[in-house]
Design a protein that fits this description.
9-stranded antiparallel β-sheet; single chain; alpha+beta; about 775 residues; 6-stranded mixed β-sheet
C-alpha cells in the first residue's frame, strides 16, 4: 500500500477516547477490511457473523436453528453448539435476532427474531429437515457476506436478499423481495437462544400506527429476570397484519369480545408471534429499524430516533464500518493478509463485549429492576469476569481508558443495587447469573487503579472490593476467612476457589496500598498467602481439602471432575499463583525442578477420557496437558520467565500463536469467552502479556510480526520492532526501549504509555 506523509491536526472522538494525530508518517490503512466475522470459536463455533458496532447493545445476526435447552427431560447437549445462535455449516436460517453472546460456553438472548417471507403466512419455524413446513429458509452459502458492521445473504426459499447493519442500539434490516407473491415480515417473540418451553414469562406487542410497532418481553434464562423492550419502524406502511398468542389461555376475561388474531393492535401473552404485510407498490425493497431498550418502549423509540433518524441503510452501514475502522487502525502490523485477518478479527472480538446498557438519555434498568440514570458515566453489562479479568479487561485498560472507567463505575453501580451489596460475578442485563468462581471484578478494578485510570472514586471502589471479599454467604467465604481455605464440602471447586480468592485478595492489598489503607493492605496480603494452605508437598500439587484439614482422597492429578477443580485439573490449577510465581517455584524445589514440571505439562499426553465429557475442552486446544482452549492456564506459558528460561516462554507462546489461531470458521481453539482468547492473542503477538492483572507490569515474550505501530489513547505512538525475525529467529537476544536495554522480563504500563521504540533483537540461539 502506498506510503504517504500526512499532516493531521484533527480531534477525533470515538467511544469516549480522544486521539490527536499530528505529523505522523504512516501508511494509508483500512484494517477493517481484514476483519473476518466468520472466524469462530473451536469446533463448536460459539460466535456470530452479524452486524454490530464496538460495545453495541445490538448484535444483529442470523440464527440457524431452534435447538432447545431442554424439551422437558433434562439438558439437551446439542444446544451447546448454539451458544451464539449460528452454526457455519447449518443449511437453514431461522431468522435474524438482535442480541447474542460472543464465545460463551453457556447462553441466553436471541431477542425479537425477524424473518422475511413471501406468500403463505406460517408462524412456526419449521425444522432443518423440512424448512418448507415453517418460515425458515435454506440459503445460498456463496451469497453469504460478513464484514465489519454488515451481513448479507440470499434466502433461497423465496429468493429474498437480506442485509443487516447496526448502530449501538438499533438493528437495521433491508430486504429485497422478488415480488412473485405478497411479501411479509414475521416477528417471533418466542424464539430465543438456550430456549425452553416457558422461558418467556410474558410478552406484549402493540401496533402504534401504520409503520410503528412496539413491545417487550420478560424471560427467565441465564438471566433469571430479564426485561427488554423494542420499537420497530418500517419503511413502508402496513397493509394488514396479525398477532397471535400460541399459548393456551385459561382466562380470557372480557378480551373474548374481540377477534384478536387479525387487525387487532395489541396483544399480550407468553407466546406472541406476528406477521405484517405492506403496501409495496412497485418498490421491492423494505427497510426496518428495530431499537432496543431495557427501560421502556418509549426509551426504544428515543434510541431509534436519535441513532437512525432516517432509514438510510447505506449511510448507517458506512457509519458502522467506519466505527470499526477507527478502532482497528490504532494498530498497524507488518504482516501478510492472512495474518492480518487473524489479528484484526481478534481486535474485533475484543470489542464486542462488554456491551453498552443504557438508553441515549442515560436511563437503564438496574439490578433491583428499578430505573436509574447513569450520572457521568456510560453503563455497561456482559462482564464475563472469570474469563476476562485475565487479558480482555487489561487490554481495554491499556487501549480504552474511558470505557474502562465507565465499566468500573458500572460495576460499582451494580454493587449498590445488589441485594448482596457485592460487585458483579457475571453481569448480565440487569441480572447476575453467578457463573463461575472467585470475585473477579476485584482484579479488574485493582488493575484500573494500578494503571491510574481516572473517572471513578478509588475509595468507594476499595470499599466495594472489600465487601465482595468478605461476604460470608458466598461460596465458602466464611470458612475461607476463618481457616484459610474453602472446604470441599462447601464447594465442588474448592481448590480452584481457594486459589482464585487468594489472587483476588492480593489485588485488593495492592489497591489498598495505592490509596494509603495499610490496614486493609496488610489483612489482604496475609489472605493472599492462602494458596499455601492447599499445596500438598508430597504430590507437589494444589489439592482440595475437607473441612477437617485433610486432603481429599482418592486423588488423580489429571482429572477435572470431583477433584476440587473447575474447568481444569491439578496440573493447571497448581500453577495459578500469578501474584507470587517466585514462591511457587520455591514450592517446586527451585528453578530447575519447576522448569522440568512445565516441560512435562507441555509435552505429556492427556488421555481423551479426561476431557471428552467436558464441553469447554477439546483436543484442538491442547498442547500436551496445557489447555489453551480454556482460560485458567493462560498465564502459564509466561511462567518460564520467572525460572530463568525466558526463551522457553518465547517458543511456547509463538507455537500457540501460530497453531491455535486461524482464518477459518473454527479459527479459535476454544471458547473466546467474550474476547478473552482473542485478547491473549493480541497481547502475545505484540510481545507482552499481563500475567498478574492488578499490578502495573507486563511480562515480555516476543512479537509475532516484524513491525507493529500502536497508537495509544494519550496520542503517543509505540513502535515495536522484531529485528531479524524469521521462522528460525524466534528467540529474543535482548530488548531495548528507546535505546536502553531492559534487563529483566518486565515492562511497565507507564513505559508503554510513554511510547517510543521497543526493539526485540531476535536470534535462533536457544
Amino acid at each position: 500500500m502506498k506510503t504517504i506523509k500526512i499532516e493531521i491536526n484533527l480531534l477525533l472522538r470515538f467511544t469516549g477516547i480522544l486521539l490527536f494525530f499530528s505529523s505522523l508518517t504512516t501508511s494509508a490503512q483500512d484494517n477493517a477490511k481484514y476483519i473476518n466475522p466468520f472466524i469462530g470459536t473451536d469446533h463448536m463455533g460459539h460466535t456470530f457473523p452479524g452486524a454490530l458496532v464496538p460495545f453495541g447493545m445490538v448484535q444483529l445476526s442470523p440464527d440457524t436453528d431452534t435447538i432447545p435447552y431442554s424439551s422437558g427431560s433434562g439438558y439437551n447437549p446439542d444446544v451447546y453448539k448454539y451458544c451464539a445462535g449460528y452454526q457455519y455449516n447449518d443449511p437453514t436460517i431461522v431468522g435474524f435476532s438482535h442480541t447474542h453472546l460472543h464465545g460463551t460456553g453457556h447462553s441466553d438472548l436471541g431477542d425479537f427474531l425477524i424473518m422475511p417471507i413471501e406468500g403463505k403466512i406460517m408462524l412456526n419455524p419449521g425444522t432443518a429437515d423440512h424448512p418448507e413446513k415453517g418460515y425458515r429458509s435454506k440459503y445460498d452459502k456463496s451469497t453469504e457476506i460478513a464484514k465489519a458492521g454488515y451481513y448479507s445473504v440470499v434466502l433461497t426459499k423465496n429468493n429474498i436478499k437480506a442485509e443487516l447493519t447496526a448502530t449501538q442500539r438499533v438493528g437495521v434490516h433491508r430486504y429485497h423481495f422478488p415480488m412473485k407473491e405478497t411479501p411479509a415480515i414475521i416477528l417471533d417473540m418466542v424464539h430465543g437462544i438456550y430456549n425452553y418451553d416457558g422461558k418467556v414469562v410474558w410478552s406484549s406487542l402493540r401496533v402504534e400506527n401504520d409503520s410503528t410497532v412496539t413491545g417487550y418481553r420478560q424471560t427467565n434464562g441465564w438471566a433469571r429476570d430479564r426485561k427488554v423492550y423494542f420499537a420497530i419502524v418500517f419503511s413502508k406502511s402496513i397493509k394488514q397484519y396479525g398477532i397471535i398468542n400460541a399459548d393456551k389461555e385459561t382466562y380470557n376475561g372480557f378480551w373474548r369480545r374481540w377477534k384478536m388474531d387479525k387487525e387487532f393492535p395489541e396483544r399480550s401473552g407468553k407466546k406472541i408471534k406476528a406477521w405484517f404485510q405492506f403496501n409495496m407498490q412497485n418498490d421491492s425493497t423494505l427497510t426496518l429499524r428495530l431499537a432496543l431498550s431495557s427501560v421502556s418502549a418509549q426509551g426504544a423509540l428515543k434510541n431509534l430516533r436519535a441513532e437512525t433518524p432516517k432509514a438510510n441503510f447505506e449511510k448507517i452501514k458506512e457509519q458502522a464500518y467506519n466505527a470499526w475502522k477507527k478502532e482497528v487502525n490504532t494498530i498497524n502490523i507488518e504482516a501478510s493478509d492472512e495474518e492480518k485477518r487473524v489479528f484484526y478479527t481478534a481486535m474485533y472480538h475484543s470489542l464486542i463485549h462488554p456491551s453498552i446498557y443504557m438508553d441515549v438519555d442515560g436511563q437503564y434498568r438496574g439490578l433491583d429492576q428499578e430505573i436509574y440514570k447513569a450520572d457521568g458515566f456510560t453503563n455497561y453489562t456482559i462482564f464475563s469476569l472469570w474469563d476476562t479479568f485475565r487479558a480482555l479487561h487489561p487490554w481495554l485498560t491499556l487501549t480504552h481508558p474511558q470505557e474502562t472507567s465507565d465499566m468500573v463505575n458500572s460495576m460499582l453501580a451494580h454493587a449498590n443495587q445488589s441485594a448482596h451489596k457485592i460487585l458483579p460475578i457475571w453481569s448480565h442485563w440487569s441480572n447476575d447469573n453467578w457463573c463461575m468462581i472467585g470475585y473477579h471484578a476485584v482484579p479488574v478494578i485493582a488493575d484500573a487503579m494500578a494503571k491510574q485510570i481516572k473517572g471513578f472514586n478509588y475509595s468507594d471502589a476499595l470499599n466495594a472490593m472489600v465487601k465482595s471479599a468478605t461476604y460470608a454467604p458466598y461460596e465458602g467465604l466464611e470458612h475461607y476467612m476463618k481457616y484459610g481455605f474453602v472446604a470441599q464440602e462447601q464447594s465442588g471447586s474448592s481448590a480452584s476457589v481457594t486459589l482464585e480468592y487468594a489472587y483476588d485478595d492480593y489485588t485488593i492489598s495492592q489497591a489498598a496500598l495505592l490509596i494509603g489503607r495499610n490496614d486493609i493492605a496488610d489483612k489482604f496480603a496475609k489472605r493472599s498467602l492462602n494458596y499455601l494452605n492447599v499445596f500438598d508437598p508430597s504430590t507437589k500439587f494444589m489439592r482440595a481439602k475437607k473441612s477437617n484439614g485433610h486432603f481429599t482422597k482418592p486423588f488423580d492429578a489429571l482429572a477435572t471432575h470431583d477433584m476440587g477443580y473447575i474447568e481444569g485439573n491439578a496440573w493447571t490449577y497448581s500453577l495459578f499463583v500469578p501474584h507470587n510465581p517466585k514462591k511457587l517455584i520455591e514450592l517446586y524445589g527451585g528453578e530447575k525442578n519447576f522448569c522440568n514440571h512445565l516441560d512435562s505439562l507441555f509435552t505429556m499426553e492427556l488421555p481423551a477420557k479426561y476431557y471428552e465429557k467436558t464441553e469447554d475442552i477439546a483436543a484442538v486446544g491442547l498442547m500436551g496437558n496445557y489447555v489453551h482452549g480454556n482460560e485458567p492456564g493462560h498465564h502459564i506459558p509466561y511462567l518460564y520467565n520467572y525460572a530463568g528460561k525466558p526463551k522457553a516462554t518465547q517458543a511456547i507462546v509463538r507455537k500457540i500463536l501460530t497453531t491455535m489461531y486461524h482464518n477459518t470458521p473454527s479459527g479459535l481453539c476454544g471458547n473466546d469467552d467474550c474476547g478473552q482468547m482473542s485478547a491473549w492473542f493480541i497481547f502475545s503477538s505484540l510481545g507482552f502479556y499481563p500475567v498478574c492483572p492488578g499490578t502495573p507490569n507486563y511480562d515480555l515474550g516476543a512479537p509475532l510480526y516484524r513491525k507493529i505501530e500502536l497508537l495509544l489513547p494519550n496520542n503517543n505512538l509505540l513502535t515495536i520492532k522484531a529485528n531479524k525475525l524469521s521462522s528460525k529467529n524466534i528467540y529474543v537476544k535482548k530488548v531495548l526501549l528507546n535505546g536502553q536495554e531492559i534487563k529483566d522480563h518486565n515492562i511497565t504500563h507507564q513505559q508503554i504509555l510513554n511510547g517510543g521504540l521497543l526493539e526485540f533483537e531476535m536470534t535462533s540461539e536457544q
